[in-house]
Amino acid sequence: MNPSSPEILPDTETGHARAAEILRAGGLVAFPTETVYGLGADASDDRAVARIYEAKGRPSFNPLIVHFADLETLKQHVHWTPEAELLAQTYWPGPLTLVLRKQADSPISPLVSAGLDTIAVRLPAHNSARAVLRAFGRGVAAPSANRSGQISPTQADHVAASLGNRVDAILDGGACEVGVESTIVGLLDKPVLLRPGGITEEDLAKTLGRHLAVRHKAEAISAPGQLMSHYAPDALVRLNATEWEPGELRLGFGDVDCDLNLSETEDLVEAAANLFDYLHRLDARGGGTIAVSPIPHEGLGIAINDRLSRAAAPRD
Ligand code: TXA
Ligand code: MG
Fold first, then answer.
1. Is residue 184 lining ligand 1, measured as CB closer than 6 Å?
2. Does 143 sit in the ligand 1 pocket, CB within 6 Å?
3. Same domain? 40 vs 157
4. What is the secondary structure of 228-270 as a DSSP string?
5. Which residues does the annotation say bind L-threonine (predicted)?
6. pLDDT tens readout for residues 254-313
7. Cα(118) to centroid of ligand 1, in Å?
8. Whose CA is nearest to atom 12 of ligand 1?
9. How confident is the model at residue 230 (pLDDT cuts 50, 70, 90)?
10. Which ligand is located closest to the Cα atom of residue 188?
């Protein structure tokens, strides 16, 4: 895969089936939603999700939204709540994303939510998005289909211009109606408006019968990786370890002797795909310190190092 230019898929049954086929093979497919074009990958495939971050050139692992075709499938992955039911009945399918606690046995990649025990889920209204999701049958992780720092795409041409051959295929479903990203509501403790969008806070408050707390945009967007809720291992983390101390849990990279190896072949996509899972696994063994081999500071390595340096930062 990854031809020199992306396959442009027609908005027909054949196009939707081809999109699902590419997703199943671990590829990246951009598709329209009612808000913006999403850069989609199989949310349960660690490597496919890692490729999203690589294609976007994101310097950190911002958690992603998982898109579903139907409520039944979506509910299998989260702890559903009465408030979620209320919002879902009122606004889905549509431009609303809910952040909920993730089911422990959900196969969604830990990289999707950057190691958090929550996931952002949404049921888009756009017919082409729904058709692709139905044909695929599982959750699709999709941020906006643009390079990091660029404007969100509302047409297939925008996607091609921004991502070029970093995406395997683009489903051309015309222009997006809403043009701004979905409203995000957290439903973990009390309802919190995490990102404003097409559905207003007043509407949401009316539906829920209570006010929403509002997290300020700057806080939510400038520093998503610094949020308290982000996963940090219980163990201390020691970076750039070129040799191991006795008793350390050894997280390697490249040709080294270790407990778990992010990528023996120094493949950064593979390393990103394994990162959160391996941190969890080493942490679960219980131990004082997780020591990590140096990771090259280029491409996806920048996001990996960003996450690792947060995990290693001094704690209170
Ligand atoms: O309209 C949209 O929502 C578009 C289309 C493609 O669906 N998608 C989109 O995704 O805007 P993205 O990746 O640009 O925005 C995802 C945002 C993250 O920046 C983060 O703020 C929030 O969703 N998010 C995702 N998972 C979260 C989680 N577990 N906890 C808190 N916030 C989360
Ligand atoms: Mg975006």
1. yes
2. yes
3. yes
4. TTS---SSEEE-S-SSPPTT-EEEE-SS---SEES-TT--HHH
5. 35, 67, 122, 142, 182
6. 999 999 999 999 999 999 998 888 988 999 898 889 999 999 998 889 888 988 988 887
7. 12
8. 143
9. low
10. 1
Distance CA 263, CA 275 (A): 10
Ligand 1 centroid–CA 143 distance in Å is 6
Which of 226, 253, 275 is where one domain is finished? Answer: 226
Tokens of 156: 């297939």
Whether residues 27 and 145 fall in one domain: yes
Q: Which residue has the tokens 């101390």?
A: 245
Per residue in 111-159, pLDDT (tens digit) is 999 888 999 999 999 999 999 999 999 999 999 999 988 888 989 999 9
The protein residue with its alpha carbon nearest to ligand 1, atom 16, reads 64
CATH code (residue 287): 3.40.50.11030
Q: Is 299 left (phi over 0), alpha (psi -120 to 50) or beta?
A: left
Q: Is the CB of 35 under 6 A from ligand 1?
A: yes
Ligand at minimal distance from the CA of 224 is: 1
Q: Is residue 14 part of a domain?
A: yes
Supply the ipTM of this predicted assembly.
0.98
Say how many Å lie between the CA of residue 235 and the centre of ligand 2: 32
113 ligand 1 Cβ < 6 A: yes
Domain region containing 245: 236-312
Of the candidates 173, 205, 226, which is a domain's last residue?
Answer: 226
Indicate whether 187 and 98 sit together in one domain. yes
In-domain check, residue 159 = yes
- Asked if residue 39 has its Cβ within 6 Å of ligand 1, the reply is no
Instruction: Express each pLDDT in 156-181 by its tens digit.
Output: 999 999 999 999 999 999 998 888 88
Q: How many angstroms is it from 246 CA to the middle of ligand 2?
A: 43
Residue 180: which of 62, 120, 96 has the closest Cα? 96
Q: Let me know whether 222 and 266 are in one domain.
A: no
Domain with residue 16: its CATH number is: 3.90.870.10
